[in-house]
Amino acid sequence: MLGLGLAIEPQIWALIFVMVRVGAAFSAAPVFGGVSLPLTVRVSLTGAIGILVLSSHSITPPPNVFALATFLSIAAEALVGLAMGFILQTAFAAPLIASEVIGGAMGIGFASSIDPQNGRSTPALGQFFSVMLTLLFLSVDGHLVLVDMLLKSYDALPPGAAWMGPEQLKAIAFFGGYAVLAGLLLALPVGFLLLCLNIVVGMMSRAAPALNLFAVGLPASLAVGVIALAIAFPAMGDYMLVIIRESLGAVQAMVLG
């Protein structure tokens, strides 16, 4: 019942109630929440996952739609879904931090383009890292792991008891610190070489004040940066896989404890 003398099909109301958590997770998660993904596709995926949840779990939605308890249950469902997607989205911020460090040292921090994932202007190097992290995320079936965690969340956090405790919220906040650390570690190999180059260029400027640093330092930084990226990228790709595993592990820890 809607609570106003109106009725709604129980199956449709149960599906809509389940789609709240799934849709919130997809809206905040990478890949699924990108602006390049049409809204109709996102809603269709949410409905398909909702049907899967209803077929594997016994979900009892609140009896009345327009009731305070129903609004609180919907808010709890949305909070759980947003938390799961937010953890993954935080992990995807690590390459952007690395690109800021590397791009600033290389002198290409001004080069930016529109990121198709969020529709905002991001550094070109950061977009390259984000695309690589997205491809690695899909290659290790991270999207399927997210769907599996959504299904398991209805066992660990059933509707009506889905409010997250302080420990879970604290873990989400501390994972943001890990994302910053991961971004700095991702930029460490190339950033260290560029730092050494800047020290050498600074020593040269002190030894020969008439030397034009812009004519020597900027081409040298670009050349060393490109070569260092080419050499270090296999190791950076391996560390991106570590970031993906840690983010999926953080989602699993939040859901299953």
UniProtKB/TrEMBL annotation:
<feature type="transmembrane region" description="Helical">
    <location>
        <begin position="213"/>
        <end position="235"/>
    </location>
</feature>
<comment type="similarity">
    <text>Belongs to the FliR/MopE/SpaR family.</text>
</comment>
<dbReference type="GO" id="GO:0009425">
    <property type="term" value="C:bacterial-type flagellum basal body"/>
</dbReference>
<keyword id="KW-1003">Cell membrane</keyword>
<keyword id="KW-0966">Cell projection</keyword>
<keyword id="KW-0472">Membrane</keyword>
<dbReference type="InterPro" id="IPR006303">
    <property type="entry name" value="FliR"/>
</dbReference>
<feature type="transmembrane region" description="Helical">
    <location>
        <begin position="12"/>
        <end position="32"/>
    </location>
</feature>
<feature type="transmembrane region" description="Helical">
    <location>
        <begin position="95"/>
        <end position="114"/>
    </location>
</feature>
<keyword id="KW-0975">Bacterial flagellum</keyword>
<protein>
    <recommendedName>
        <fullName>Flagellar biosynthetic protein FliR</fullName>
    </recommendedName>
</protein>
<feature type="transmembrane region" description="Helical">
    <location>
        <begin position="65"/>
        <end position="88"/>
    </location>
</feature>
<keyword id="KW-0282">Flagellum</keyword>
<feature type="transmembrane region" description="Helical">
    <location>
        <begin position="39"/>
        <end position="59"/>
    </location>
</feature>
<keyword id="KW-0969">Cilium</keyword>
<comment type="function">
    <text>Role in flagellar biosynthesis.</text>
</comment>
<dbReference type="Pfam" id="PF01311">
    <property type="entry name" value="Bac_export_1"/>
</dbReference>
<dbReference type="GO" id="GO:0005886">
    <property type="term" value="C:plasma membrane"/>
</dbReference>
<dbReference type="GO" id="GO:0006605">
    <property type="term" value="P:protein targeting"/>
</dbReference>
<feature type="transmembrane region" description="Helical">
    <location>
        <begin position="126"/>
        <end position="151"/>
    </location>
</feature>
<dbReference type="GO" id="GO:0044780">
    <property type="term" value="P:bacterial-type flagellum assembly"/>
</dbReference>
<feature type="transmembrane region" description="Helical">
    <location>
        <begin position="172"/>
        <end position="201"/>
    </location>
</feature>
<keyword id="KW-0812">Transmembrane</keyword>
<keyword id="KW-1133">Transmembrane helix</keyword>
<dbReference type="InterPro" id="IPR002010">
    <property type="entry name" value="T3SS_IM_R"/>
</dbReference>
